[in-house]
Amino acid sequence: MSTPSPSVIDIIRSDHFELLGYFHQYTSTSRVSAKKALADTLCDALALHTTLEEEIFYPVLRRLSPNDAIIQKSEPEHDEILRMIALLRETKPDDERHDILLHELVRDAMHHVADEETVLLPDAERLLGKERLAELGAAMQRRRLELVTPKPGKLARNAGTAAILVGVTGALMAALFVAKKPPQLSSQHH
Length: 190
Hints:
Number of helices: 5
Structural class: mainly alpha
Number of strands: 0
Shape: globular
């Protein structure tokens, strides 16, 4: 008997929860080494999440609702997030621009997450059905492992980042199987 895969919705929401945790840990008053480590981890996790969404989740949504305004603006938003990540990685953590760039990245990412959490994910749940969502979840898990597994020539250089991503991925996947629902970003309804 095989264990069912978490749905793509569960994985995306779990990623959002993880990213929110990184956002809240970063402070401009932290030691330079701590800021660099957290910014690197945040950038790696955000770049991975963005890549997975663009490769697995968004193509399905674009086929279902090609004229949806939120779906149409998602690719440019992902591109902007990746551009900000590249700028942040080029900036030393003791440079005053580092904090500004990180806060801009967080702002842009949170705006994007809000659209996904309030519109796209509920729409996908309604339109795709549990079986298709589980298929997409399995595809996203496979692709994540491909992206975070170090290649032979890059093993030594990327060992730290890969270990972090594999550890986080493993912990998240274990949590998804143990919990009925992953932690979700809270939304207040007034």
